[in-house]
Write a structure and sequence with these properties.
about 475 residues; 4-stranded mixed sheet; globular
Amino acid sequence: MTRTFLGMPATAPRGVGHLREGEPFPAAARRALGDPQLRRNLGHATTTIRAKSGRVIGELPDWQQLRDAGSALKADTMARLPELLEQLESAVTAAGGTVHWAADATEANRIVTGLVRATGEQRVTKVKSMATQEIGLNEALAAAGIEPVETDLAELIVQLGADRPSHILVPAIHRNRAEIREIFLRAMPGVDPALSDEPAALAGAARAYLRETFLRTKVAVSGANFAVAETGTLAVVESEGNGRMCLTLPETLITVMGIEKVVPSWRDLEVFLQLLPRASTGERMNPYTSMWTGVTPGDGPQQVHLVLLDNGRSAVLADEVGRQALHCIRCSACLNVCPVYERTGGHAYGSVYPGPIGAVLSPQLTGVADNASLPYASSLCGACFDACPVKIDIPSILVHLRGRAPHPRAEAAAMAAAAYVMDRPRLYAAAQRAARLGRLTGRRGRGLPPPLSGWAASRDVPEPPPATFREWWARR
């Protein structure tokens, strides 16, 4: 019998971070669908990524075997998570680093803020990290008088635009280059007023803006894509090289990492470094794969800290069905193929984790009642499962979470009545005949009375057939 609990399976605290939807998904999605520019931006970006990813995946004859290996490694890791994390702590400590355990977002923010304050610095550079977005670290640092500066280009766009990320891998996917130019002109100090919207010009402006920050800032905060338990090595993969500047130049490096990111060995890391780039950006390998192990005297940061974040993950681990969500390697493949995400974008999900994986991960981290509409933000088409490089069965988890979501009394009563009728053949036959009156409710069922009108608000009611199957059979 393997252990599956790290501690008390508490959910992420309310009022801290960015995991809970501000409004139900249907309302937020309806507003997003009314923005034609957003839909054009999303459609163009996801179509491009899908095509590129499909080409490089097609080059590997053993892609399905790699997926099988990734899935098996993740399942094994979750079964041994406590012991692997203890091994990771020992290895990091032996290499000169310091490990901190954070039960939730509040504790993680307190730890990181305290570490920065201890250096006497008032500014930090940041490598793109979903964990720090999850816990609202930027807001916590700002409240403590510390300026966080995002160095990933897309994250910088989001930060300067006072916006929110809308994609796991491409946080500014909802912006086109003309919109990015306007953000830079409005919010970036020292930018050339004649700046064009050519990608090279925009990147050059960001590079000039960040150069002084890199050279003068002595503290950096990073995320981690993976942590190798046997060596204490942390890894970040990225496309621009800004992350490597953050990981090498500062005197103090603080990494915030979800506890599920650990892998047992270097051999295991090999599998994920083949899966991740192809499934995410359609590249054969990540342009920048940075790894560091503790402290090396005279080279790189001399104070290295690792904050291991739970924030609801133990609660996810305790669910035998839902724990698959912890296998996620944040590649965004499920977002890029999801017909719902492609039309609504990430903001409609309310959480820093959008798309299909967000629809199963966020409700488990917060408690299903706090994100009750997200498990329904899917057509259950199964495209996400087909695309996932570690074979997370997202549709099955969605159905599982729908069963745990709170349901209105009227809906429960309607389902009980339907079960009663379907269990009685004569009543069921009469109900089928009565269903023809549904034609009187108008096109697509829009004329149904409450509470049935709620069901028809986001679905088309099938038009009743001219005859039931029983009547058709009787005539023949």
